[in-house]
Structures are given as structure tokens and as C-alpha cells.
Amino acid sequence: xxxxxxxxxxxxxxxxxxxxLSLNDIDAVIAHDPEEGLRLLQQANIDLVIQDxxxxxxxxxxxxxxxxxxxxxxxxxxxxxxxxxxxxHLDAAVDLIKAGAADYLAxxxxxxxxxxxxxxxxxxxxVNRALLRHVQRERQQKRELETHYDLCGLIWQDNTTKxxxxxxxxxxxxxxxxxxxxxxxxxxxxxxxxxxxxSSVRDGPFVILNCGALPAELIEAELFGAEAGAYTGAxxxxxxxxxxxxxxxxxxxxxxxxxxxxxxxxxxxxxxxxFERLGSNRERQVKVRVISATNADLPxxxxxxxxxxxxxxxxxxxxxxxxxxxxRPDDILPLAESFLDPGKRLQAQAKCALVQHxxxxxVRELKNVMQRANLLARGDTISVDDLALPAPGVATGGxxxxxxxxxxxPDRETIEQALQKAGGVIAQAAAQLGLSRQSLYRRMxxxxxxxxx
Length: 453
What we know:
By secondary structure, the chain is α/β, with parallel strands linked by helices. The chain has helices at about 10-20, 35-45, 65-75, 90-100, 110-150, 160-170, 190-195, 215-225, 240-245, 260-270, 300-305, 310-315, 330-340, 350-355, 360-375, 385, 410-420, 425-435, 435-445; strands at about 5, 25-30, 50, 80-85, 105, 180, 205-210, 250-255, 275, 285, 290-295, 320, 345, 380. Helix 4 (about 90-100) links the parallel strand 4 (about 80-85) and strand 5. The N and C termini lie far apart (about 80 Å).
């Protein structure tokens, strides 16, 4: 049952309030002066305070009530306080409402209004305390995660992200393959790095291969290495990613782009730890933990005959699905603020715009938007205009570049113009087109555009 503390030096008033509250299933505790009231607040579990404004004989200024309220506020900032006022100090009560008092009731009070006010404030207080406990519990869990595990400086706040991190850290020490799925730019590589940094091979190498950034004929050489002369342009023997990752972790991004021949060889390495360099008959033995990632629908690719089912189950011992940034809304503002230049801050309207934006390019798009805003802002405050976010319903590329229906898939002429304008610098041309560098490479290969100009 909730408990109300009544602080009033007039005994009949205090008793009348106590009886009224008890008739409505509310306990009451009485204090006849401010000192006793403050002591009871420390000792008892109080849900709400009803306090008078005067306690000394022949005093009508309300100054004692103001001092009591300020003391309660300083020691118990979330405690709801109802003021009992007389017309002579109504102005003081109104000022205290502005300072945070919950309500004021004039003497003599209306019983129904008083009970309704008390019940509403107690219910609101219970909800607020429950929310506060929930927030404190989440903050404690966040601190525990960041204390017990190396999260590689990841900026996060959303409960969905917390659940993913908990699983990632839980499975990190297990010697099993992990498949991370999710859209481009969502942070799959960072999750892979966190798994590696908390694994039993954290002191070993962490090697990354983006299978979507290379032509199909070079992926096997990148994975397994090649002897001199194994293919055109192989002037000397080269070590593959599996050899480089021996004793550590190999992260294979965009695994859905691996050609079928490479899939078969990858399956053999996962099963035996053995492989051969291209152009060599000598088997090599490695111990490598493989983490892979994709934004593709691998089961659909299996049904279409584009991905081996046996390899899928080898890679997918544990699957982590990283949702799009828009599905982790509490991560948006902490991430955005982490991308701000020192001394800059976001306007309230800019914060609202960031949270409401759909972020089709995920964290990568958010980073680029904030970098652009840092440059466009005239002062230390970043406004909605500085963000230059597209209107709702307008598609954007991975870096926030606005795409119309006509240029969502750039043609050969558009790509060549961008390359010429960028002086052949792929990263710069990709930024102009609103594509990732890997996506531009794939389009260039498909359209037969030379990478060397």
C-alpha cells in the first residue's frame, strides 16, 4: 500500500488528511514540524508528501513552507510534493510549482480533488520509478559489458545492440565458425573484430578479406596464395589470407560473392585445415578461426544453385543478425555525436531529424552525413539544414548521396565521367556516385571498365 507523509503542525488538519487517505487505501505518516518530516523521509518508504506552508504560530508568510520544500527537493529530487496553501501565500505556492512542486491545494480542500491528485501522482511516481530502475539496470549491464569485454571502442546505446554484443562476447571463446548477417554499413566488421578480441586467439592476427572487392579469378589466390606463374601477372609467390591468419582469425566479408570453385576449397579448409596454393601440389596446414559476413540471402542463393549448402552450414554454426541502424534507434544520437568535431553540438531539431531519418546506408551513411555537417556548419551548432538530409521517400546511396530513380544504378557513361572527374581515384569517384568502393568495383567489372584507366 502506498504511503503519504503529512507535514502539518495543525493536529486536526493532519488527522483529517490521515482519515481521508486511509478510507482510500493509502497509508499516512504524520510529522508536526519540518525537522520531523525530513527525518521520516530518511527513515520510511514514502511515496508522496503533503506539506503545509507555515509551522510557527502567527506566521502567514509561507517562507517556512518554501524552505521545507527546498530541503525536500535537495535531498529527494524525485519526491512528489503537494502544497497546502492559504490565499495569503498563494503566490509562493505558484512559484514552487514552477520550481517542481507537483500541485497545490487551497484550504479547505476538496476531498475528491485531493484524493484524485494523490492517486495520480502515486501512480505516476510508481511508473517513473519502474522506468528509472529499468534505465539503471540497462546502464549497469552496459557498464558490465564494457568492463568485462573488449568492445573495440564501439559506440552504442540501443538494447538490440546490447543483446547482439552479449551473444558475440559469449561465443567469442568457442572455436566455432560465426556468420554475421545484416545490411551494408551496419557494422558487421566491427562485430567480427569484437569476437576476435575476446577469443582464445585474440593475440593472433585478424585478417580481413572482402570477397566482393575482387574479381572472381583473383579471390582464390587471395584466400589460398599462389606460386609464381600460377596466373597471368603472378611474378612471384604470394602468401594467401589463410596463411596470414594462421593462429588467429580470418574475416570473410561479402561471403556470398565467393565463386563456387572457391566455395569448394573453402569448405575443405574448414573441414581439414589443409589447402594448396594455386599452382602448387604441396599441402599446407593452418589453424584459423573463420568469421564470415553477408548482406545476401544465402538460403535463396542455395536454392538457386549459387551457394553450397554444406558450406553454409559449416559457416553458420552460430549466426548473428545485425539489424539496420533504423532498427536500433537509440544508437543513432550517440553515434552521431561521436562523429562531431570537437566543440560542435547538435541543435534539438537536428537531433529529431537524425532519429526520424530512415538511414538506408546505415552507420556508413550517418558518418558521412555528420562529416559533411561538420564542414557546412558556420558555427559550433549543427542545424537541420547543415545535415542536408533528403526529404522522406528519397532514396540515398551508402554515403548519403541522393539517388533518383534514373541514377540509382549508374550506367557506363556516368561511371566513366565520375572516374575522370576524380582523376582515377576510385574512392573519390565512388563517393560522387553514392556507392561504396567495392560496389563501384563490381559495376566496373560488369561493364568492362578498366581499373587502371
